[in-house]
Amino acid sequence: MKKTFLITVLCLLVLSITSCKKDxxxxxxxxxxxxxxxxxxxxEEVVVEKKPVKKKKKPKKKKVVDxxxxxxxxxxxxxxxxxxxxxxxxxxxVSNYRKxxxxxxxxxxxxxxxxxxxxxxxxxxxxxxxxxxxIEKLSKYMQIKSQQLADLSAKM
Length: 156
Prior knowledge:
Layout (H helix, E strand, L loop, with lengths): L1 H18 L4 H5 L40 E2 L6 E2 L2 H23 L2 H24 L2 H24 L1
Antiparallel strand pairs: 1-2
Protein name: Lipoprotein
Organism: Aquimarina mytili
Keywords: Signal
């Protein structure tokens, strides 16, 4: 019984292998369809204007120059940035004061009082920051400018 069963299984196996073969007709013919367009398309040339290209400017590197400025009214000069700022602000104040005195404008004097208070605060901060040499130079400058302001006040 085992033999008959094995023979039957083998026969079915051989039969299934031979029957699962691909169709020989489909192997030989590979049809590729190529689509051809028979209508002609009118092509219009379109002129596209290019936008002008802006050149990117390279940022200029600022050179850090530690120039010293001459302190007005003295033969001294300073390199300290805070002292330079104070001197420029004070020179602007003296210029505005001179204009107010010549025009005898009382409103300008009220504005100058606020500016004077700000300069006083800035001067006090400078005195705590600056080294001794710079303090002497700035004190000499302030004596000269105070004398100029007193002379202007006397003219009023």
